[in-house]
Request: fold
Amino acid sequence: MRVLVASGSSGGHVFPALALISFLRKEGGDLLLVLPLKSKDSFIPPDCSDVKYISSGFLSFSLSSKSISGVFNFLKGAYQSLRIIIKFKPDVVVGFGSLHTVALLFWGWLFRIKTIIHEQNVIPGKANHILARLVDKVAVSFSQTKDYLHLSTDKVVLTGNPMRSELTKVNRQEVLSFFKFQEGKFNILIVGGSQGSHKINAVSFAAIASLPGKQDLQIIHICGRQDFTTLDASYMAGGVTYKLYEFLPNMQYAYSIADLVICRSGATTIAELQRFNLPALLVPYAFAYAHQLANAQILHNIGAAEVVLDADLNVDKLKERLQEYLCNNEKLKEMQKAYQKLPYFNATVMLAREVLSLK
Reply:
């Protein structure tokens, strides 16, 4: 079976796509991952070496050099997508969202190739909203997503959000050795998405550095490239035990020891928090506000996470929330137990079955 997997450039799109590819590779057959050209320098695991890149551009109704360039690059990517479809001859095309996948799914539909898309967020993105009418199947991570699609029930299947197989609980002593941390301290994981978040980076450090009990904390902070040098110097001067990373491929180590997570609420992050049952303080990304807020509400409604809007995030508020968590271990235990209210899916296997059933 020949499967073409198309994804956008963000971690929320790429990581579920990589999880599916990794599983399907064990089943045999030919697999091809197609990403936008701007992803070429991003981290791709070595077992996903069959990758092609297409030009991409955002479409806009405004008349400017940037919008004209966007249309040109989109059309160029559509032509490249056609060539890939003709040459690879897939049996199934799988899309993981974003504008960059539209042409590949369209050509697949036009040539009567079986197609399926996966929507990671509660509220579908614009690209998947359009594609949902064309494709053979729509896989969703949340049951609430069905209400936004208005499709026949037999076309939409609930699979959950695929995750990399390595994201499993690691022995605590192994994790302590990995980070060179001490037992008995409170461990906070801070992560602002695949590209990092300057606001979360700055506010989190300032709040932690001003805590009276900071010597009892151990921080794992994944900050992205832009703020790394500045944050590293600040942490060294701030008297806080920390491990700072631009990007951490071994996220299972961080998740396995975290007592609290401060993070965005992308769909992949929500799925990973659920897998590890982690209490979280969620700060939805302002420029994907509707999507990330809807995702965050899933955990907030069951009591597993607290939501702070990006506009409301400041040092005093975060310091106050951290002090409450540090003094209330029972609250953290209740947040962990709250995950039992959510259904569990072996999402990678379920999505793979849907893909394989289309041939």
